[in-house]
Write a structure and sequence with these properties.
By secondary structure, this protein is mainly alpha-helical. Helix content is about 70%, strand content about 0%.
Length: about 300
């Protein structure tokens, strides 16, 4: 213990303090940075840059590129790291990966972007500055891989939810019409998971527009639900209910997402009028009511209540 106390005094005393002088004490040496990294780990900014360099290097195998993007996604779960994507110059480099020849890399880059954007105004502003929303929308509409389109939708959602400026940019880019085409395509191709995600986003945006507890600067325009109804989303949602009615694994989930969206939409007078005018929706609800497996009875009843008011 005595030797430990002597060590503590020697290592905490300043030049002006009367610390015991030990002539045998070796002069302090600078540690090799590699040793520090090995002990403490590299700074997050260095790790993020190295992940991107690994993805971009032409000799990196496909699976290693995807792992590097997974690592980067975990890093940007931290909001400070997500905010540093811009200072590190990574946003344009991520955007370039949205069209990579490897679907796994495209998906990974969009996932990193979505994670960084979520509830992060600084990241959302940088994303917008680089014009990346237009790139993501092109992927959402045209990518041949359903999984990549799903990650693109996640990215769109992270950018426009609780972000009035982002939603305005989305609308200016004709994003609602693109969502309509994406939902029609998902239904036609039998992509239940993607259809559910699209319906969920539509419902969430409508809820935000109508939620009076949400600060006004974060709320979509009050006209948005009516615009969604005018674009024909009600019949597309009804068609989704009918399309997946015979899919035991997806029927109830798709019906539930569609029902939640349509009930929210009917909270406005214009939305309710449009919902009640849909004969295709009445057909979907009647079909679900006649079956015990297509939908949760509570979802059927919620739509019944709207249609019969």
């Amino acid at each position: 213990m005595e030797s430990l106390l002597k060590w503590a005094v020697l290592n905490t005393a300043t030049a002006n303090e009367d610390a015991p002088h030990d002539a045998t004490r070796p002069a302090p040496q600078k540690l090799d940075p590699a040793v520090i990294d090995a002990i403490l780990g590299k700074p997050a900014s260095v790790q993020m840059t190295e992940c991107m360099e690994a993805v971009e290097h032409p000799s990196t195998p496909s699976n290693a590129r995807i792992i590097a993007l997974d690592d980067l996604e975990m890093l940007v779960e931290n909001i400070d790291n997500a905010s540093n994507v811009e200072p590190l110059g990574l946003w344009p480099r991520l955007g370039a990966l949205y069209t990579d020849k490897d679907a796994g890399v495209r998906s990974g880059a969009l996932w990193v972007s979505a994670t960084a954007l979520q509830h992060n105004p600084r990241a959302q502003g940088a994303f917008s500055k680089h014009g990346l929303l237009a790139s993501v929308l092109r992927v959402l509409e045209a990518d041949e891989a359903a999984g990549v389109r799903a990650k693109a939708l996640l990215c769109v959602s992270a950018f426009i939810r609780a972000n009035a400026a982002g939603l305005a940019e989305f609308i200016a880019l004709d994003g609602l019409a693109l969502l309509k085409r994406a939902l029609e395509s998902a239904v036609e191709q039998g992509l239940a998971a993607l259809a559910q995600k699209l319906l969920f986003l539509l419902g969430a945006v409508v809820d935000e527009a109508l939620d009076e507890n949400t600060p006004e600067e974060l709320r979509p325009a009050a006209r948005l639900p009516a615009a969604i109804a005018d674009l024909g989303f009600i019949d597309i949602a009804a068609n989704a209910m009918l399309r997946f009615a015979n899919d035991n694994d997806a029927a109830a989930a798709v019906f539930g997402r569609a029902a939640a969206f349509l009930v929210s939409l009917s909270s406005t007078d214009e939305g309710k009028k449009a919902v009640c005018a849909s004969s295709l929706l009445r057909q979907a609800v009647d079909h679900a009511r006649a079956s015990d497996t297509i939908a949760d009875p509570a979802d059927v009843q919620a739509l019944d209540d709207v249609l019969n008011q």
